[in-house]
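Handout, section 4.2: multi-component inputs.
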Amino acid sequence: MTEAEVSAKSEAAITLPIPRSFPELDTPLALIEHPTLLRNIGRVAQAARTRGLAVRPHAKAHKSVDLARLQLEHGATGITVAKLSEAEALAAGGIDDLFVCYPLVERTRVERLIALSRRARISTIVESEPQARLLAEAATAAGVELDVTIDVDTGLGRVGVALGPPLEALVHLVERLDGLRLRGLSTHEGFVYGIADPALRRARLTESLSAFVLAGQALSLETISAGATPTIFESMEVSGLTEVRPGNYVFYDAIQVALGAASLEDCAFSVLATVVSVRSGSSAIIDAGSKALSADAGVHGLALLSGYGIVLGRPDVSVIGLSEEHGWLSLDPQGDGVQVGDQLRIIPNHACATVANFDRAYLWEGESVIQEIPISARGAFS
Amino acid sequence: MTEAEVSAKSEAAITLPIPRSFPELDTPLALIEHPTLLRNIGRVAQAARTRGLAVRPHAKAHKSVDLARLQLEHGATGITVAKLSEAEALAAGGIDDLFVCYPLVERTRVERLIALSRRARISTIVESEPQARLLAEAATAAGVELDVTIDVDTGLGRVGVALGPPLEALVHLVERLDGLRLRGLSTHEGFVYGIADPALRRARLTESLSAFVLAGQALSLETISAGATPTIFESMEVSGLTEVRPGNYVFYDAIQVALGAASLEDCAFSVLATVVSVRSGSSAIIDAGSKALSADAGVHGLALLSGYGIVLGRPDVSVIGLSEEHGWLSLDPQGDGVQVGDQLRIIPNHACATVANFDRAYLWEGESVIQEIPISARGAFS
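Output:
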């Protein structure tokens, strides 16, 4: 085990001795702890308010109209989504300010965006000249003006233009094109997930975002927007940023705990599973497999995880493998063991990938379920 | 690259030069090639018929009422499912002979099973004494008799009793309990996924299933049922087996290709994705990430895979990473490259885990979509 894992497991033992049990509900199911959710949303909202920053949370993390609305009630200025169909699902639920942070490259999809822009306030990203021209032509033909940011690659190497001449050329193009209104720059500094050392992560973040901010200021752009959960509070310290777009922070998960970006007590999302078979003192099977928990073992190079989640209150129990519908537990022979029928609460590796498997999650507090939360944009990929 | 991968990639280049494109459909989407699907179902049906074996395919692979019905039309005697909620979803679609191959351990779930058994022919597994007693008590209280098999662990180490005294004790218990009717023995020889060498895999399979069959015959049991796709045809050669329960064989996938259990031409399921960003001659991004393709890199110890699927007809293109909504392509600099807007067809690592992410799949042939297939039991975990 890594130090972060040891620390996470010790903490589980100390602060959360009793797994919550909901015998009336069939497992596996997705749970969201209400006080923790509110605290997570509130902390980011408060920190941003103090610094005069806008918050535009990323709904890919929860895919839920209810949680997006909660974020807006806490002062978010709008919602970010990865896919157009997520925007459509949230707009259908009444969310009216949506930033589609994904390069739309096909006319059919751009036309869907324009149709949506007649029902809600919509913006999107531009990251190449052909894509800018496609958006501009479709918008002009439809007689609308689309708000856009230019997406910048600040180190993840996924989408976005490079700083310097490529960015400047694209800014000048977009400013000239009819149908587009340039709102500013956006980036996702997701490279921070690949840096295990917190001090190095912070240094790389600050260096990278500072260059990004300078570019935006040199071009006199109004919005300079970034966001990644592991470094959300550090990014707010970068002078000149105007907006943050964290996603996972509503839930946190085993990846964030491994990175030291959250404690187990910050984790609002868990999967409740039932022990269905005990083979020996050292192994057992639960009814949550890869289709429920997700087989995601960390994106963007994270190498801190082992296994498939943290079993709350049970440092003696590890989820060491997943079949489709079975989770494989390893039991410390010195621990208390498990019984068939026991319910265990598991913080998944990646909450965003996990909640997206479920049709609904249960918002709970103490021993009671408060509300069923539809995962409104589940399955919304296109 | 392993030899299997090199072979898979060469084969892709030879037999499937042109990726099918469906410009009218928004990606990423799930495709099922109709002729290949029919051939896969037909081959297993024909081989089983020749040997007088029953086929009870596992619907976890497709979670679809339509495909279950197709399997029944090809002579399947019933359908296997992993979860009770899958059985409920298929029964609601008119599938009337369902084997819930999962240990039900809670009274609420057993009562759901009994309720379902009034609407369809239902059977399930028993793998421990307390679980047998729970099923028997609930069935007796409800005035029904439940068909059961006793599940045997033949090497996977997941669920099931061991051969020998544990099995004999459980058989004698179940035969004495009111409310249960013992149909026979069942196993899932999933350990074959962990054996890379085909000759060794076959030898281990034969040894293991032969012992399993002997146990069933010694106990004079009617049904002796096993099934795992990589060795489905080999298992049919094991004398005395009465039923096979393969799942993945309807689709096959990159795992089966890596195991040598299928060729790329056997793969009926693919994900169509669009290139959304090209960064250089060596890398690009598609609009299918872990939420669509699944991050499953092989269960039960398979170590033959690298990356997240096989790009059909493009041996020069590899899917080397997945964010939630982005797939990372690596491009061979000697290849043809890709353009923004290109559609690529990808055989996922694990088709069962992938199809379960989608609300629907498209059955197609040649250049036409024939039918939309609802993934009826998507999200059915409980």
